[in-house]
Design goal:
The chain is of the alpha+beta class and 176 residues long. The chain has one domain. It is built from 5 helices and 4 strands; from the N terminus they run αββααββαα. A 4-stranded antiparallel beta sheet has the order 1-2-3-4.
């Protein structure tokens, strides 16, 4: 299944980049890549995105596990390749950061950007895929996905009552 491959590839890339950073960069060291814009750093985040929920490991680990299982459910149920791709990206990123939380106690962040006086929080490859997957999922939900009930109403208007070709339990083939 391609979705498992996408998820696994994200986890592997995330692990490799984090290993490279932890073996080659000292904690809190800054290595300028593009001066005044992009640095490689080695920081450890005990919380979630943007530094929220610091020391929230006891909450974040079970929350991530539950979320991944929920996303896996939708991955299995969906027939949309675009939606499955977005879910695979989010799952891969979530599992990459979950591995850090479980085995290190914190998440390794190392990509550091600044724009003038504005300095963004450090992040990692897993975070990139969580954001890209979420954006792709939002695009799908807003512009592509159609509710089965909406299609059912249209079918009833053209075929008449009692001809239930879509509805609860039936999936919509939206972009095959």
């Amino acid at each position: 299944m391609i979705w498992i491959l996408i998820t696994a590839l994200i986890i592997v890339i995330d692990r490799i980049t984090k290993i490279l950073v932890t073996k080659n960069v000292e904690p809190h060291e800054t290595i300028p890549v593009i001066r005044g814009f992009f640095n490689i750093v080695f920081t450890e985040n005990t919380g979630a995105a943007l530094g929220i929920l610091q020391n929230g490991r006891a909450f974040l680990i079970p929350f991530t596990i539950i979320t991944v299982f929920l996303l896996l459910y939708f991955l299995i149920k969906s027939e949309s390749r675009l939606f499955k791709t977005s879910l695979s990206m989010v799952i891969g990123g979530a599992l990459g950061n979950l591995a850090d939380r479980v085995f290190r106690g914190s998440v390794v962040d190392f990509l550091d950007f600044q724009f003038g006086s504005w300095h963004f929080w450090a992040f990692n490859v897993a975070d990139i895929f969580i954001v890209l997957g979420t954006a792709l999922m939002a695009w799908y939900m807003i512009f592509i996905y159609k509710e089965p009930e909406t299609l059912n109403k249209k079918n009833n208007e053209t075929t008449g009552p009692g001809d239930e070709t879509t509805g609860p339990g039936n999936t919509v083939n939206d972009e095959k």
